[in-house]
User: Which sequence fits this backbone?
């Protein structure tokens, strides 16, 4: 018994040392997924993000057909990088709506002019309130919402070419 | 001297990556509520909510835009008469327990709550056997 107690402090020290080392070596960047996947889209109504295009409300997400919802901003650099992938998804017949975070109509218009415009509706969320209601923690993010308005999938970060099959699969699964 | 100076100068000329919008912050992200009692309960809540962008900070400490928008959300809801715990629950529903710095008592977190009591008990037991030996 005495022996065991003698070695116990060393053992405790080693446990702490290992914990510390793994904590230091492992990057601490954590992706935060929305807990609303599998639950209905929260109620919201957003004004139009650009002139001549309707704004977005949660009612638009219950049309019986699944839709994609892209959270973006004209000031967000990865959003530029995912533009060709969004264009490809639109080309495949997937309806895409967008929420522009903390943005101005003229900036959104310039962004769409330059990087392409795959969006059917664009809502303007000037104080991130709908973003927070959706459980989204950054731009860009993409949700897939089924015809009954249930969130089925969340994609964090920009859509790269290798993500396309996964998104198309998730969209088909939401039908 | 001149040669060493140029790279330093270039460093200052480097364009910072744009990660923020140019919209002004929400008025409530940097303005306190008019009612000091409400502001106090909002501040108390904000100190225990984690910023989603700068993940080691509370939203009260962070200058990230999203943290500002979260403070605005907290203040607006407190002003409307919502209780701090219901606002916390609303955020936990969306982001998980991760978003709160006050971990709830759950099967995953019970070691966190039990460990101090356990360590104290072990310490007392060790000290007790020590004192007993000395008395002999």
Assistant:
């Amino acid at each position: 018994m005495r022996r065991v107690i003698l070695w116990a402090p060393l053992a405790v020290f080693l446990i702490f040392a290992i914990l510390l080392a793994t904590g230091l070596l492992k990057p601490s960047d954590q992706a935060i997924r929305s807990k609303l996947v599998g639950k209905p889209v929260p109620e919201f109504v957003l004004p139009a993000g650009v002139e001549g295009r309707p704004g977005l409300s949660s009612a638009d997400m219950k049309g019986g057909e699944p839709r994609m919802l892209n959270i973006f901003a004209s000031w967000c650099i990865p959003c530029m990088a995912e533009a060709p992938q969004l264009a490809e998804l639109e080309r495949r017949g997937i309806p895409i709506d967008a929420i522009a975070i903390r943005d101005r109509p003229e900036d959104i218009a310039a962004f769409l002019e330059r990087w392409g415009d795959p969006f059917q509706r664009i809502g303007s969320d000037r104080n991130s309130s709908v973003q927070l209601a959706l459980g989204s923690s950054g731009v860009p993010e993409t949700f897939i919402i089924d015809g009954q308005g249930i969130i089925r999938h969340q994609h964090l970060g920009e859509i790269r070419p290798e993500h396309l099959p996964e998104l198309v699969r998730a969209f088909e699964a939401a039908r | 001297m001149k040669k060493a100076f140029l790279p330093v100068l270039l460093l200052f000329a480097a364009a910072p990556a744009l990660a923020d919008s140019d919209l002004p912050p929400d008025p409530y992200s940097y303005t306190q509520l008019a009612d000091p009692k409400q502001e106090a309960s909002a501040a108390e809540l904000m100190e225990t909510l984690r910023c989603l962008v700068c993940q080691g900070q509370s939203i009260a400490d962070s200058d990230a835009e999203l943290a500002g928008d979260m403070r605005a959300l907290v203040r607006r809801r407190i002003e409307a008469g919502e209780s701090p715990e219901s606002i916390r629950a609303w955020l936990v529903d969306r982001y998980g327990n991760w978003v709160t710095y006050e971990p709830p008592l759950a099967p995953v977190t019970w070691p966190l709550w039990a460990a101090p009591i356990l360590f104290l008990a072990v310490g007392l037991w060790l000290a007790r056997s020590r004192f007993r030996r000395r008395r002999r």
Summary: Chain B touches chain A at residues 17-23, 26, 52-53, 55-56, 65-66, 69-70, 72-73, 91, 93-96, 98-99, 126 (CB under 8 Å). The CA atoms of residues 50 and 56 of chain B lie 7 Å apart. The longest helix of chain B spans residues 110-135. Chain B has a mean pLDDT of 86.
